[in-house]
Amino acid sequence: MKKINETKFQQDLLEWYDENKRDLPWRRERDPYKIWVSEIMLQQTKVDTVIPYFQRFMSLFPTVNDLAEAEEETVLKAWEGLGYYSRARNLHHAVKEVRETYGGKVPQTEKEVGSLKGVGPYTTGAILSIAYNIPAPAVDGNVMRVLSRIFSIYDDISKASTRKKFEAIVREIISTNRASDFNQALMELGAMVCSPTSPACLICPVESHCSAREEGVQDILPVKAKKKPPRKLKMKAVILRDQQGRVLIERRPDTGLLAKLWQFPNIEAETTELEDLKSYIDLLGVEVSSITKVQEVKHIFSHIVWNIDVYEGKVEVIHNKQLCNQKNKCHFVLIEDVNWYPFPVSHQKIIDGALVMEEES
Q1: Contact (Cβ atoms closer than 8 angstroms) between residue 143 and residue 190
Q2: Is residue 337 part of a domain?
Q3: Residue from 6, 39, 110, 270 carrying the catalytic annotation
Q4: Is the four-CA dihedral 323, 326, 328, 333 of positive or negative sign?
Q5: d(Cα 117, Cα 115) in Å, to the nearest integer?
Q6: Is beta strand 247-251 parallel, antiparallel or unpaired with respect to 330-333?
Q7: Domain interval for residue 242
Q8: How far apart are CA 172 and CA 152, in angstroms?
Q9: Do 89 and 113 fall into the same domain?
Q10: What are phi and psi of 345, to 5 degrees?
């Protein structure tokens, strides 16, 4: 691996960061709780998307104790639209740990921070370095991309062993006096200059240190194994409207994909026949007079694609009133109350499409 002048590298990188860093709301103070929340939100989500969510989240839960005391469904509703809801549930669980074990103050050691639910090596390093200026590595995708090019490292960055290699490199080259700025500068460089494709090498502040640029291989680094294409799944969902104009919503299981979020009744269905959907409606204990297709929704996860045919049915008889009024399972709600419940994005599309169109008509 190429050796670099660490002092000069730090100087070039930090001077650029001081002049070019973005004004982001979580950078305006070094509150470890706010930095923690921002880093969890930024996992697999773009900065521009996160900013309004972060600001709203902080207005609702400005401190560790505020979030710890909130109801889970309230937290999920505040997170609605960001996706990867396990992040919110883990964060909610972890702040309760902080309140109970550390008196509401985010701890300052790698062991303590890393033991919190949902906090991995990257988030641990980000909290410690950015909030507390502790020289701990915070290695995300941006940092791995930058360092793979600086040092011409061809290891597959999707492997845990490669991440550990980059963490070791950061421990060697990090500015001990400005650990907070150094880690953020590496991330910022990857986000703004050392991009995944067509990196802007001519304006890069550390171009003179870059082995990949010298060798002309910056466009093929970093190396990352190709993911399998997402699996496609056909589904049917139904808006069941009773004679009072209410709609039936159901809660997803407590574990698994989109756990505990609310949705419209739906099933997996490869065929275009409606018998399977009608059978599911029967299980809900209601009778409908007609079922009409009103919308098609496509939603892409990292590993799966949902293609949802959306139907609407008019409920004439409710056989199982007990089932359809259990708030922890499924129940009828007024349309104006639907938005009080946290829904996955796919079903928000149904709310914004078929449900709104029906109301307007």
Answers
A1: yes
A2: yes
A3: 39
A4: positive
A5: 6
A6: antiparallel
A7: 231-360
A8: 17
A9: yes
A10: -60, -40
- In one-letter notation, the amino acid at residue 65 is N
Active site residue 39: yes
Nearest to 341 by CA among 78, 66, 91, 59: 78
d(C-alpha 169, C-alpha 244), whole Å: 64
Reported as half-sphere exposure (CB side, CA atoms, 13 A), residue 244 has a value of 10
| Alpha-carbon span 99 to 250, nearest angstrom | 32
Dihedrals φ, ψ of 251, to 5°? -100, 135
Shared-domain flag, residues 172 and 251: no
Asked if residue 1 belongs to a domain, the reply is no
CATH code at position 121: 1.10.340.30
CA-closest candidate to residue 34, choices 59, 9, 63: 63
Contact residues for 286 (Cβ-Cβ < 8 A; gap 6+): 240, 248, 315, 317, 318, 319, 320, 324
Two tokens, residue 6: 């660490």
pLDDT tens for each residue of the chain, 361 residues long = 778 899 999 999 999 999 999 999 999 989 999 999 999 999 888 999 999 999 999 999 999 999 999 999 999 999 998 888 899 999 999 999 999 999 999 999 999 999 999 999 999 999 999 999 999 999 999 999 999 999 999 999 999 999 999 999 999 999 999 999 999 999 999 999 999 999 999 999 999 999 999 999 999 999 998 888 889 999 999 999 888 889 999 998 888 888 889 999 999 987 777 888 888 888 888 888 888 898 899 988 878 899 999 999 898 887 766 555 555 578 888 888 888 899 998 998 998 887 765 554 4
Task: Give the domain CATH number at 352.
Answer: 3.90.79.10
C-beta neighbour count of 336 within 10 angstroms: 9
| Domain stops at, among 220, 250, 270 | 220
DSSP 226: P
**Residue at 225 is within a domain:** no
